[in-house]
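Structure (tokenized):
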């Protein structure tokens, strides 16, 4: 193993927290000129999920950083191709497996070649692929153009969510192999097209070796995190430890030590060049936001334990179905489990780290309500009656 350089920069835990917030777009003036596409390029990946409470997670991510960007504007920013004078419209993004199912900047297509090769070499799959179905799907896409799984013949054999049809198995396998790509959604359905047709030609070819791909993704993860442990970096795009080990010394990241962190860390040198300053965002966060999607990192940086309880039986939930962390003053100050009832945003359950956070939580709730066209906010439950009364009074004073 190549010996790694000794850290020459020492950061306090507070400095590391502020660097991480700036790297994720929560400290300093938001880049409104770059808009939603700028947020995507800056983060490198925006996670997708089927759950929609206030909005879907890929909408909540730019909202948390930019404020009340229209939901239609968000979708158009991801999925509307850029027109060109002499070539087919160029997509801004594509979907692929990164931290999970994610929207990724189209410029990163070449750097996921290592994963596409790994899928092609994979010996076992959970869904059987009927004979001839793969070739038939490719033939249909080539003849008819971009199609949804429904257009291809149906996504499911039965009503069970996991019981995929043969065409759905085939097209998803083709997506993982890179022969097919999703650069658009229609009504939350993936629209599949041949990669050779949808991905701009200069980006199409899988000629980067694994080391080049991994160096790029490790560098991107370090930039998006600001300062991170080896495990943080690996988790960002779900790389293996040995993959990170092989390239981190040549990734451009620099080793640092962080007070209170038990593991060695790496930092983006640009993040170390200036002291993080500026206004903190106050906002509700999707549980799938890249600031908090790594639970171990969230606990280390913010001293905040958070778990998504959507898949926990209701009687066992502590914080609620889709409890959203509240970010204020550069801290995670509590959780809100939201719902919508007509024009009312309902805080079904609120838990706070300190009563001092009541004004910040009220502000976050009111901004979120405005964003989703609600005209009222109601607090249903809180840790104590006194907290519910205080938050209700704060909201009443602002409505």
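Design, position by position:
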């Amino acid at each position: 193993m190549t010996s790694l350089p000794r850290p020459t920069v020492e950061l306090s835990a507070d400095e590391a927290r502020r660097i991480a917030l700036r790297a994720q777009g929560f400290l300093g003036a938001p880049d409104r000129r770059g808009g939603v596409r700028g947020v995507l390029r800056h983060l490198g990946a925006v996670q997708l999920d089927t759950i929609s409470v206030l909005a879907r997670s890929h909408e909540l991510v730019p909202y948390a950083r930019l404020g009340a960007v229209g939901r239609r504007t968000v979708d158009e920013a991801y999925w509307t191709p850029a027109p060109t004078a002499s070539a087919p419209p160029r997509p801004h993004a594509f979907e692929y497996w990164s931290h999970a199912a994610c929207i990724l900047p189209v410029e990163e297509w070449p750097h996921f070649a290592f994963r596409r090769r790994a899928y092609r070499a994979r010996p076992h799959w959970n869904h059987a692929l009927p004979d001839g179905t793969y070739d038939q799907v490719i033939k249909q896409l080539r003849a008819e153009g971009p199609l949804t799984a429904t257009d291809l013949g149906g996504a499911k054999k039965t009503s069970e969510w996991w019981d995929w049809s043969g065409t759905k198995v085939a097209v998803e396998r083709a997506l993982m192999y890179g022969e097919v790509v999703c650069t658009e959604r229609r009504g939350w359905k993936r629209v599949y097209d041949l990669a050779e047709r949808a991905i701009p030609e200069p980006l199409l070819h899988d000629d980067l070796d694994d080391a080049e791909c991994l160096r790029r993704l490790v560098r991107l993860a370090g930039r998006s995190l600001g300062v991170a442990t080896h495990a943080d970096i690996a988790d960002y795009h779900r790389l293996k430890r040995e993959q990170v080990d092989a390239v981190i010394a040549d990734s451009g990241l620099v080793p640092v030590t962080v007070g209170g962190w038990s593991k060695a860390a790496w930092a983006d040198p640009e993040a170390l060049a200036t002291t993080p300053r500026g206004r903190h965002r106050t906002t509700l966060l999707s549980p799938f936001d890249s600031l908090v999607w790594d639970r171990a990192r969230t606990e280390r940086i913010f001293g905040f334990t958070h778990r998504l309880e959507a898949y926990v039986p209701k009687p066992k939930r502590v914080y609620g179905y889709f409890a959203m962390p509240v970010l204020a003053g550069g801290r995670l100050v509590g959780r809100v489990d939201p719902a919508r009832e007509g024009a009312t945003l309902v805080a079904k359950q609120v838990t706070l780290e300190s009563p001092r956070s009541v004004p910040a939580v009220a502000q976050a709730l009111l901004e979120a309500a405005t964003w989703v066209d609600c005209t009222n906010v109601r607090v249903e439950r809180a840790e104590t009656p006194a907290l519910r009364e205080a938050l209700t009074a704060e909201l009443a004073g602002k409505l």
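Reviewer-requested clarification: The radius of gyration is 22 Å. Residues 307-395 form one domain.
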